[in-house]
Amino acid sequence: MTGLIMNERDIVVPGEKIASGMDYLPGNGTFREGEDIYSSQLGLVGVNGRFVKVIPLTGKYTPREGDIVVGKVVDVGFGMWNVDIGSAYSAILNMRETSEFIDRGADLSHYYDFNDVVIAQVTKVVRYKDVNLTMKGQGLRKVKGGKIIDVTPSKVPRIIGKQGSMIKMIKEGTGCNIVVGQNGKVWIKGERIEDEVKATEVILKIEQESHTQGLTDTIKNILEGKGK
User: Fold this and answer.
1) What's this model's pTM, rounded to 2 decimal places?
2) Would you list the DSSP string of the chain?
3) Where in the chain is the domain with CATH 2.40.50.100?
4) For the structural domain made of 68-143, what CATH number should be given?
5) What is the pLDDT of residues 127-173, one digit of tens each?
6) Under CATH, which architecture does the 3-56 domain have?
């Protein structure tokens, strides 16, 4: 069989065959071997005329089962919602995976509407394409107000700290409710805008200086008004 083997915006891994035959030409992130074109990196397939390329997923969140994520509803479908979790593909929240009882045929936007922010858990990942979510579990819910900031997903463990020590200190120092998603999205809500700004500045500082020694003391001093 000749032609495209993968579809546009499919996720491919290094060495995965994208096209067969000489009708297509290798672009960025791909290479030809014989008559076949393969991916040279993890990314999304892109097709521009006869050129095939792979767009790298650097910085994108790679979902894993069990992850707690902060997401935003981007579409209301039949019996489900599409939720943006910062991955290459929107995640799916089925109506059966909510904490509410929802009658068949009900208007789902009455429960979760466009741009609603949810704290959910990843229950299933199929080759990083199909991501299923649940709202059944402790702390999983729709949140209102506040703000969302984005951090590099790989820096999340440093922001949370050992046994949650860092994020606990930030919550106590700012008085804010904070949820740090494994997907690098952080929901912050305080009594005052100033509190949210302070929490935001501290979290972004941790992201930028996660590799430095004495960071915990630095953050503690900032929260106590003793440093910058």
Assistant:
1) 0.74
2) --EESS-TT-EE-TT-EEEESSSSEE-TTEEEETTEEEESSSEEEEEETTEEEEEE-TT-----TT-EEEEEEEEE-SSEEEEE-SSSS-EEEEGGGSSS---TT--GGGTS-TT-EEEEEEEEEETTTEEEEE--STT-EEE-SSEEEE--GGGHHHHH-GGGHHHHHHHHHH--EEEE-TTSEEEEE-SSHHHHHHHHHHHHHHHHTTTSTTHHHHHHHHHTTS--
3) 3-56
4) 2.40.50.140
5) 656 899 999 999 999 999 999 999 988 889 999 999 999 999 999 99
6) Beta Barrel (2.40)
